[in-house]
Design a protein that fits this description.
Elements (H helix, E strand, L loop, with lengths): L4 E8 L2 E8 L7 H18 L4 H12 L5 E6 L9 H21 L6 E11 L2 E13 L6 H7 L6 E5 L8 H8 L13 E2 L7 E7 L12 E9 L4 E8 L18
Antiparallel strand pairs: 1-2, 1-8, 2-10, 3-5, 3-6, 4-5, 4-7, 9-10
């Protein structure tokens, strides 16, 4: 059978997004070619990380599994920053200290974080105390280290990451991107340079190729598009093993 369709797969750790859509052939009549172009565009539109939270979702999924850490650190009155710039500078110093401590033991610190100081109340935003949320790869000896290095306040919340049908990477990413920016163009999150990126694979497949949810996977999203000349399918899921907690093991630094 002819391979007239494309299968695109984005793999970000446990998170997988797949799509199948038609390949455009120059020999197709104009109306068929136009229909295939539209189907291809619609499918890829569903896959593309257009918004900030979508890019963050893939980044979180590529780097963290259940058992890694979700941390919130808050400033006390004595150390309360006067601006976002000052808060970001203080967090950068904390991150530098954390990286140095991990490096002493041959471990990497992989961190995604944001800085917030607003709270949405009904239809408007209210100012609140500056704080940071961040995800961190667990090593098994992190709680006391974080509390020792964060010297700007005792209000520290540390939880293990979990996954289920309601608490997904997307939900966490949306939460980190929920605050309205102080100015146009302001990025709502950042990450360390050693963070892994999603893997993308594109292959040609036969016309009868189907998208199937792997056994043990958790379906998050499914959409289909049917046309007279072209069909497309998109499937998003957590891969088998999504519900197993990662053992607290350090990621070793690569040798230069």
């Amino acid at each position: 059978m002819a391979k007239n369709r494309t299968r695109k797969i984005i793999t970000a750790g446990l998170l997988v997004v797949e799509a199948i859509y038609p390949r455009v052939d120059r020999r197709d009549p104009d109306r068929v070619r136009a229909a295939k172009h539209k189907a291809s565009s619609e499918a890829q539109k569903r896959m593309n990380a257009i918004h900030s939270f979508q890019k963050l979702e893939l980044g979180l999924a590529a780097n963290y599994r259940p058992g890694d850490l979700w941390v919130t650190v808050t400033y006390d009155d004595e150390h309360l920053p006067g601006s976002r710039r000052e808060a970001k500078r203080r967090f950068a110093y904390f991150l530098q200290k954390l990286t140095v401590e991990r490096k002493k033991h041959g471990q990497d610190a992989v961190v995604f974080w944001n800085t917030e100081h607003k709270h949405r109340h009904e239809d408007h935003w209210q100012d609140r105390r500056w704080h940071h949320h961040f995800a961190l790869n667990a090593t098994g000896d992190d709680y006391e280290l974080i509390r020792r290095l964060w010297t700007y306040g005792a209000n520290i919340e540390i939880r293990k990451l979990k996954l289920d049908k309601d608490y997904t990477y997307e939900a966490l990413a949306r939460y980190m991107c929920k605050e309205a920016p102080d100015k146009v163009g302001q990025h709502c999150w950042s990450c360390t340079r050693n963070a892994r990126k999603p893997e993308v694979e594109t292959i040609r497949v036969e016309d009868d190729e189907q998208l199937q949810l792997p056994r043990g996977a958790l379906q998050l999203f499914k959409e289909t598009g049917d046309g007279v000349y072209a069909k497309w399918r998109v499937l998003k899921y957590l891969a088998p093993g999504w519900d197993r907690q990662r053992p607290p093991r350090a990621r070793r630094r690569r040798r230069a």
